[in-house]
Amino acid sequence: MSTIVTKGAVPVSDRDHDAPDPLSRRKLLIGLALAGTVALSELYVPRRSVDRQTDKSFDKLFPERLGPWAYESASGLILPPEDQLSRTLYEQLLTRVYDGTGVEPVMLVVAYSSVQEGRLQVHRPEVCYPASGFTILENVAASVPIAPGFAIPCRFLTADRGARREYIIYWTRVGDALPIRWFDQRLEMAKANLRGLIPDGLLARASVIGDDRNAALATLTRFVQALVADSGKAGRKLLIGPH
């Protein structure tokens, strides 16, 4: 029997040899994609933006005298429960009571982390005051004028526990930004991460005990202004960034 050969036909073995293997091409593309992903992840791994503070250097940033106030003690402040979890939520925690002639005593808390990953949430008054038996009666936006054209965006709260009413003003800093809302803090952290940085973060809180809301707000405003003015260049940068 004769074999019929079609003119122009190519043997199967030759055709398979010349045609590209789709599976091999797919593997190559997947490999290149994975390699690119690894390279990008290495390139954009966020790195800390500031050095860690020591206890001694951190304390020195805040003077013992602020305007008419002088550092008196470190007791009587409302803080989160002192357990193993809360001790790991920050690197530095400054707690001071300032007093002076002719002025109301002011309680100051500054919680700081050189690597901000949302850990200062526990120190927000909305969290730690109710945990200590207080009811938040008021929580409104406020601001403290520092220089022409600039004021610290803050929140002003009234917390009550029957025999004790406390007025609180606080603000947060994430990197160079001063966000107040928790969502905005997370957003600033995400923006910094996209730039390849892990920002540092701070929460500063000042409070007074009393019954007169307007007088308390005026006292806290004066105290925060003195705190920023008297803390020097490094302290001011830690408190409000480059503003």
From TrEMBL:
Signal peptide: none annotated. It comes from the Bacteria. Pfam families: DUF3485. Residues 29-229 form the Methanolan biosynthesis EpsI domain. Residues 1-20 are annotated as: Disordered. This is Methanolan biosynthesis EpsI domain-containing protein. It comes from Sphingomonas metalli.
